[in-house]
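Q: Please design a sequence for this.
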């Protein structure tokens, strides 16, 4: 089924399967595709963000289960705190799934990383819809689930246009300047491979 996603400025994308079938103004796309389901979102629709710290956040950090919050807190554990945990493949996989879900909640659609060494993490990334992309060396900055918290210039995925992969995000802000000021915690929806993989409750 074709779905049209539109933001508060009337910019819209028509999604068919994993691909963008059309792009333009909401009124025009509704007229061209009268049977489509329409999702109207508050804020702005963007290509989605790239998180530059894939290895650090997925293979060098543990994302606690909410049931562990009293003991471990809610923030990713690294260094000595991570070394103190008994980690096996199942625990790495669960951690990676939680980390990826938190990335999706910040509008991330791509993650830059060197080759992922941990198979459990690699499988979790493959299933998540977040697209890995290569990098050479350390990007610097501070690993952060919100790319705006890394201290590095924020990078967006490729612009969304007709026949491109349906990966994008919607942030509840007026424009890109407000997004930079308030950060990616303003994300209300993330679409990856045409699927609505995150929606703020």
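A: Design:
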């Amino acid at each position: 089924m074709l779905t049209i996603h539109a933001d508060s400025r009337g910019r819209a994308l028509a999604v068919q399967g994993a691909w963008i079938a059309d792009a333009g103004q909401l009124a025009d796309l509704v007229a061209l595709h009268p049977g489509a389901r329409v999702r109207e979102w508050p804020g702005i629709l963007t290509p989605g963000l790239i998180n530059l710290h894939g290895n650090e956040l997925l293979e060098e950090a543990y994302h606690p289960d909410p049931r562990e919050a009293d003991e471990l807190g809610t923030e990713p554990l690294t260094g000595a705190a991570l070394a103190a945990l008994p980690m096996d493949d199942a625990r790495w996989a669960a951690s990676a799934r939680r980390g990826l879900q938190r990335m999706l909640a910040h509008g991330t659609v791509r993650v830059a990383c060197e080759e992922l060494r941990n198979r459990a993490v690699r499988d979790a990334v493959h299933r998540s819809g977040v697209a890995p992309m290569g990098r050479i060396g350390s990007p610097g900055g501070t690993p952060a689930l919100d790319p705006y918290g890394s201290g590095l210039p924020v990078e967006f995925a490729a612009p969304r246009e007709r026949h491109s992969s349906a990966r994008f995000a919607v942030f509840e802000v007026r424009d890109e300047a407000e997004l930079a000021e308030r950060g990616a915690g303003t994300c209300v929806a993330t679409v990856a491979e045409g699927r609505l993989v995150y929606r703020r409750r």
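Q: Thanks. Anything notable?
A: The two ends are 24 Å apart (CA to CA). The chain has a mean pLDDT of 95.
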